[in-house]
Amino acid sequence: MDFMTRTNDADLKEHLNRSTGFGDSSDSPKVLVLFGTRPEAIKLAPVIAALKRSPDFRSVVVSSSQHTDLLKPFLRIFDINVDHDLKVMSQDQTPNQVSAKILNLLDPILEIEKPDVILVQGDTTTAFTGAFAAFNRKIAVGHVEAGLRSGNPLSPFPEEMNRRLISQLAAFNFAATESNRENLLRESGDFDNIYVVGNTVVDALHFILESSETGEDLGKLLSKTEGMKRILLTTHRRESFGEVMGKNLSHLRKFVETHDDVCLFFPVHPNPNVREATYQKLNGSDRIFLLDPMDYADFVALMKESWLIVSDSGGVQEEAPSLGKPLLVLRENTERPEAIASGVAKLIGSNADLFEILEENYRDESWIRSVREIENPFGDGASAKRILTVLKEKIRISA
Ligand code: UDP
């Protein structure tokens, strides 16, 4: 019961005792897993698969569909069956409108399903709103990838605040690394519900590497660019929109056009800000491949075949070290300092000269070559198993 000791609310404690199986229910505990975006689906897929395999739990899967088209291929590839789809996506919604829909639509599901625990992941509006809805029904919240902090409550917006609020609501904070645990303790010294389990993205990567094959279209592009230095780019974060994105795309184009043996692959995010800048700056170059968003198996295959990855994504900062690939992070700061500290990634702020940095690494490849030897700071691929072990231990299973 140690996960509850930081609340003085006796009523809440009693309810959590009951709802987390401390009572004498003979059913195995029910875990509701909620996601809504691509990275949440990737990182919760291993947990959903482990729950499905385990005889110790019942599970329910809910998608808010905060992303729609981006999400679908991931459900297929990970064989995720959605029990309830909230279908909240519509064009140009504010975070408040998304939140209101999720609260409204999730509440009756919580009432009917009566889960013992709800698992949310990361920092999206879906994750925060789901945790809040569960808390209001006195259902224990498990937060996967807890303890990431940028240090600035307004950046990334609204994700940093979502993370902080979920930590307060959670009965189980599943941190990926020791430094994530330290972040939580710095914020609230009395957190006694932190479990360092590694990052489930490593589990997802292992699964994909073992079970999937590269698609035909990507196979052809890889053959066509055999022997070249492939740069893989992803950029879609709000902070990058506008001038900074335009400048970085121009620098990448100039670099590709300067060297015959360099090519660029860019799966272009559907956000109109990204699309517009991309077609303005990168269209019409032979060695620049502008692609649709890729399914996970192809994206992982392309990361593996890259010379260098350039990205502002959060998940990619964990995947690059897992694959031993060098990464330039297009951000002012990162809530994943482990990738930088390990030497796999370098932070490229908005004032940096990306073209010059690329040139330096073209002339001297020692950093690029050294990266494959670096140990992955984000875990070993057994995070989902650890999460279930904690839940099993804490939610006394009456079997
Ligand atoms: N990703 C993918 N296909 C793509 C681009 C990205 O499968 O075309 C994956 C990538 O491997 C990572 C995740 O999507 O795991 C990152 O999602 P996103 O950049 O949307 O979110 P963030 O990680 O920044 O929260």
Description:
The protein is an alpha/beta fold and 399 residues long. It folds into two domains: 211 residues, Glycogen Phosphorylase B (Rossmann fold); 158 residues, Rossmann fold (3-Layer(aba) Sandwich), CATH 3.40.50. The chain is built from 17 helices and 13 strands. The protein has a seven-stranded parallel β-sheet, with helices on both faces. It has a six-stranded parallel β-sheet with strand order 10-9-8-11-12-13, sandwiched between helices. Helix 10 packs parallel to helix 15. The longest helix is centred in the first third of the chain and has 19 residues. The protein starts with 9 loop residues before the first helix and ends in a 5-residue tail after the last helix. Bound molecules: uridine-5'-diphosphate. The site of uridine-5'-diphosphate has 14 residues, from helix 2, helix 12 and helix 13.
